[in-house]
């Protein structure tokens, strides 16, 4: 597996890799920053045509009108909320002051989602609350187009785990906000296990308070086209963000994850690790990692990594790590991108010890994902995802 760009603090690099039918783009530039300022108003964003930097990898024709305003809210989404005692769940209007605190929409689809939802869901956890069970939101698409907005308002020094599960068939555009109080600890798992025809575009905004921590694990399996944008900002010094992602891209699927970490407050930390496996003709995965360390963010420590394992011919990966540093007074910063095929030596080693080829192949892939699966601290979710990985690998063996 080729390793691209392990960059020390202050350095910038650019390049590309092509290996047979596997295409990889890798570069370090600020060009992935959005071309229009963040806004709640759809009119502030021109209709994209695919030439814009933020849309150049996305198959716009497969977004079912989410990008150009032709999509209408004609669908149905079954939403189930399982909240432990002490958690408040509210349906609110667009005028609620808690909406938008964590960040504004950064593209036309996110703005369309904000202007089109009927009611937003606000989940509030009081300060000093330590939950022993996770908050669970299950969203099941029942056809058509839906828009949504969810806010998790986490009080100071609270500790909470959140699981948002997406299943069924839908064309879905939504924003998810996390307003995390000082000293709070939040672990978030988002699972995209849609039916094969679903389309899902979502912006995740996290505002991390002073000395607070936020861990996000984004898992993407299903759907025809999925585009997720996790974004992190810091409200005070001492904040930590860990962003993990696991995706398994099958034939014909487009899965895109675009991350932005904005270090403006001093003495904060971020760590990003996304890993994907691809199999089948025209499987396409896109990963964009963008970290900005502003002049005021002295004492920052950050690192981002994307690794991709290509299991069959006909798959494509675009991996773009970006790092912009405006101050030299940091602890450390770097990034890396790696994409490659199966390690034949590993496979040979296992088969030489009597392990059948199919089982040996599954062991290698499971090992590749082990680091990320371990980050899911909720046993039933972790076991379900392990079963899903096994199902994907069985399909590739057949």
Task: Report what the structure shows.
The protein has 398 residues and is mostly beta strands. The chain is built from 4 helices and 19 strands. The chain has a 17-stranded mixed sheet that branches. Helix 2 crosses helix 3 and helix 3 (357-373) packs antiparallel against helix 4. The longest helix is centred in the C-terminal third of the chain and has 19 residues, at 379-397. The protein is globular.
Please sum up the structure shown:
With 398 residues, the chain is mainly beta. Helix content is 13%, strand content 45%.
Beta-strand percentage range: over 45%
Order of helices and strands: EEEEEHEEEEEEEEEEEEEEHHH
Q: Radius of gyration over alpha carbons?
A: 20 Å
Secondary structural class: mainly beta
User: What's the helix count?
Assistant: 4
Helix share, percent: 10-25%
**Largest pleated sheet:** 17 strands, mixed
Stretches where pLDDT is under 50 for at least 5 consecutive residues are 1-32
Count every beta strand, where a strand is a DSSP E run of 2 or more residues.
19
Gap between N and C termini, in Å? 25 Å
The 3D shape can be described as globular
> How many structural domains can be distinguished in the coordinates?
2
């Amino acid at each position: 597996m080729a390793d691209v760009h392990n960059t020390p603090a202050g350095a910038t690099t650019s390049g590309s890799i092509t290996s047979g039918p596997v295409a990889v783009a890798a570069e370090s530039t600020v060009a992935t920053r959005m071309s229009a300022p963040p806004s709640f108003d759809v009119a502030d964003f021109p209709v994209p045509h695919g030439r814009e930097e933020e849309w150049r990898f996305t198959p716009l024709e497969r977004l079912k009108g989410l990008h150009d305003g032709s999509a209408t809210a004609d669908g149905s989404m079954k939403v189930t909320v399982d909240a432990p005692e002490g958690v408040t769940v509210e349906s609110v209007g667009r005028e609620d002051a808690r909406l938008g605190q964590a960040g504004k929409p950064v593209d036309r689809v996110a703005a369309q989602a904000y202007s089109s939802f009927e009611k937003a869901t606000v989940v509030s956890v009081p300060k000093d609350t330590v939950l022993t069970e996770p908050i669970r939101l299950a969203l099941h698409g029942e056809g058509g187009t839906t828009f949504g907005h969810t806010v998790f308002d986490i009080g100071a020094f609270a500790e909470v785990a959140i699981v948002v599960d997406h299943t069924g068939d839908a064309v879905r555009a939504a924003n998810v906000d996390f307003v995390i109080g000082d000293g709070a600890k939040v672990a978030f798992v988002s699972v995209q296990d849609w039916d094969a025809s679903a389309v899902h575009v979502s912006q995740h905004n996290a505002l991390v308070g002073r000395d607070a921590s936020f861990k996000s694990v984004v898992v993407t399996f299903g759907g025809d086209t999925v585009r997720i944008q996790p974004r992190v900002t810091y409200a005070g010094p001492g904040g930590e963000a860990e962003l993990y992602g696991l995706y398994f891209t099958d034939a014909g699927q487009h899965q895109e994850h675009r991350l932005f970490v904005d270090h403006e407050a001093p003495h904060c930390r971020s760590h990003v690790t996304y890993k994907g496996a691809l199999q089948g003709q025209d499987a396409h995965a896109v990963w964009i990692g963008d970290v900005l360390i502003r002049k005021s963010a002295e004492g920052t420590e950050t690192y981002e990594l994307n690794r991709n394992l290509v299991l069959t011919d006909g798959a494509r990966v675009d991996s773009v790590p970006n790092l912009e540093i405006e101050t030299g007074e940091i602890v450390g910063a770097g990034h890396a991108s790696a994409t490659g095929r199966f390690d034949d030596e590993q496979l040979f080693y296992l088969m030489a010890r009597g392990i059948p080829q199919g089982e040996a192949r599954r062991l290698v892939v499971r090992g590749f994902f082990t680091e990320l699966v371990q980050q899911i601290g909720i046993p039933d979710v972790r076991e379900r995802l392990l079963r899903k990985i096994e199902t994907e690998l069985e399909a590739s063996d057949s």
